[in-house]
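Design job #97: recover the sequence.
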């Protein structure tokens, strides 16, 4: 393994570690002797600091507490903090939250049954919830072919609960879903290809 190979392998490891890594740990990770790793570290430090003829990078390789890790340069801390602070996760729309609640309490449930409860088309909202990984397709009805949906473990993580049994007991407020007939389910536009759009927010 050449010195360049060791340096490249070190960079790959250093990009993903969350805690400073000792020379011994890094040597084991890249499969190289400790002296070779020490030399490669010194080379990378000089490279990032612009001492090898290149530009000073926006990050640096710093030794902290006996270990090595990549850090943002101090003069760029404010820039990074401002960027991270502005990256608030996009929130679900009210329509998506309502649809998610219906699915959580009535699962397994089809799109038509959810639409019957909410009295609106839910195609786009269901697609959003699927894309977010909050719901999943459980199975298809043997007679109608309608997809039944349920929530995922990701929802439990977001809510900070261990199981759906910990949800507030408000399911009686959602009564009526069982009255939706299978014939009606097949005939609905959302099961026929989702051609109807009532402007549900994504």
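Job complete. Output follows.
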């Amino acid at each position: 393994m050449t010195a360049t190979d060791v340096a490249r392998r070190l960079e790959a490891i250093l990009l993903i570690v969350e805690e400073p890594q000792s020379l011994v740990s890094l040597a084991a990770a890249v499969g190289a002797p400790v002296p070779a790793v020490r030399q490669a570290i010194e080379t990378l430090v000089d490279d990032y600091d612009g001492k090898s003829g290149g530009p000073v990078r926006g990050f640096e390789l710093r030794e902290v507490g006996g270990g090595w890790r990549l850090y943002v340069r101090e003069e760029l801390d404010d820039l990074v903090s401002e960027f991270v602070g502005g990256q608030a996760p996009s929130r679900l729309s009210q329509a998506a939250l309502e649809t998610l609640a219906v699915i959580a309490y009535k699962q397994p449930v089809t799109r038509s049954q959810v639409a019957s409860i909410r009295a609106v088309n839910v195609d786009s909202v269901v697609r959003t919830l699927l894309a977010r990984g909050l719901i999943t397709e459980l199975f298809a009805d043997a007679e109608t072919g309608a997809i039944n949906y349920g929530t995922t473990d990701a929802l439990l993580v977001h809510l900070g609960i261990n199981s759906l049994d910990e949800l507030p007991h408000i399911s009686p407020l959602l009564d009526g879903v069982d009255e939706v007939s299978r014939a009606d389910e097949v005939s609905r536009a959302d099961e026929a290809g989702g051609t109807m759009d009532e402007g549900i927010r994504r």
